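tool_call: predict_structure(chain=1)
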Amino acid sequence: MTQTSAAERRERIGIARVLMCALQFLGLWPMWNERPQSAASTQCSIWLRRYYRYLLHVPLTFTYNTLMWIEALTRWERADHILYISITEVGMMALALNFWRMERCAWHFMHELNHSDCLALRNDVERDWWCGQQRLFARIVVCYIGGGAGVLFTAFGATLFMSGYSLPYDYWLPFEWHNAQNYWYAYGYEVIAMSLTCISNVTMDMLLCYYLFHVALLYKLIGMRLMALQHLSEPLAVQQLMNIIELHKRVKRLTTQCESLVSVPILVQIVLSAFILCLSAYRLQSMQISENPGQFLAMLQFASVLTLQIFLPCYFANEITINSDALTTCVYNSSWEQFSPSTRKQMNLYMELLKRPAHIKAGDFFLVGLPVFTKVAAA
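tool_result:
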């Protein structure tokens, strides 16, 4: 492999490489495939690779959410202060468990996107366009993860300026923490646990969106190559058409794989997020801005990030449908009528395959797209 081709492979998945490294550090992406174990690997390092995720998330993510639910069930009069974030934590845990369950499929999916020669870009025009799209998605990632981190910063920062001893999100503790001696233990544990769950959640969201984003780009790439047929002689156009059809078959298979990876998480997110938005709206109405402006601002940020959590997968799934549906138009705009009857027949047969655009379903219940977002937002 040349140095140029290695650089092209790195650029092919762009920010997704950073997301996978971050998830690996967070115990949510497989380590065993990224770096083959050598014979010199110690038994301790092998054990740590295998159980690192559980050592990280069991005492923090799962224990913290359990304590929040105990607090909500034992102090029902303050349940509205806790339930919206507790249900969010449940969604995060469901997402983490799904990542662990589908880790092998997800790794092979990303490996094919990054290394398959069939998906390689062919010229500078395609590379420039592809890199521009990857940079655009990177900006979305930065804004989304920054928004999630901003919610934490505002919530925990505002708590420090409140009178008395209070936590941004109540959870049950087996000791009295409303005093100077124990308060910082409760506060410190919540900072660590909530930071882990928040960053894990938004990073997993972005990787799921990247699956959809990359597949949508591949359909757009097919359309670009179809449009470019008008500039080729007929023998070259026929050869290119055969390559496009093979690429289309590969992309359809990748679409099915992508759906299997995102179907259940998106279903859980949409169902839970709709309920959480209702609880958040009720919480905002019951809050006194003058009494706690910091917590009110944190709630507004939380509701905004939650809205994006629903919108982004719906948008990128909708892009898959739009780009795949536009392929028929791309064939018509390729000056196909100038080719010989046999070539036109091949293109007509190909257009028959394009009559049904690709869709992403959420758990076989509904199609994921902008109409779903508008229904959830209107509700």
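agent: The chain is about 75% helix and 0% strand. Proceeding to next step.
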